[in-house]
Amino acid sequence: DAEITQSPRHKITETGRQVTLACHQTWNHNNMFWYRQDLGHGLRLIHYSYGVQDTNKGEVSDGYSVSRSNTEDLPLTLESAASSQTSVYFCASSQLRQGEQYFGPGTRLTVT
Amino acid sequence: DAKTTQPPSMDCAEGRAANLPCNHSTISGNEYVYWYRQIHSQGPQYIIHGLKNNETNEMASLIITEDRKSSTLILPHATLRDTAVYYCIFLREGQNFVFGPGTRLSVLP
Question: How far is B41 from chain A (nearest CA, A)?
Fold first, then answer.
């Protein structure tokens, strides 16, 4: 069955380190999205991509970057992790740009 | 602004229908209403979406008022596993999903 996976599921890192969170989908969807979820803020869009080599900033993109070298993967990189980036991160994909999105299980990141 | 209004919380008895309301008075004619839910610690799960007509799938029914300013998600026979936060969203053309606080549904035994 097609699916979307994220790794690692849990990560603890130190302030200032570079961290990359992986997202992989086997639906062959062109559209992929990264969100973060914090108490009191709900889900907020970080970056998204509508296809290979395409990336776009979302609502809370500062301190994050993404790259899209193939259809299946959209890794999220925290260039220099900050305590404010402690959060749960969700990746999603969709067949249509504005169609239903299918979410991964999430990565819980703690920055100490 | 693509804003919806939902009650912050609701209770429902197990086995009964859960009716979750959503107000989206600023929706435009070609904008779909989407419903997602998020069970504790899991990723959001797509439930259903609709434009004008009522929709039904294996998970739920979606009733949209004729003026499209509000909708109701119906879980016909709620179970304990339906306890979750339910999000009602509509997409502005060219924009992305904006998840609000949603409705926390508690299904009680």
Answer: 8
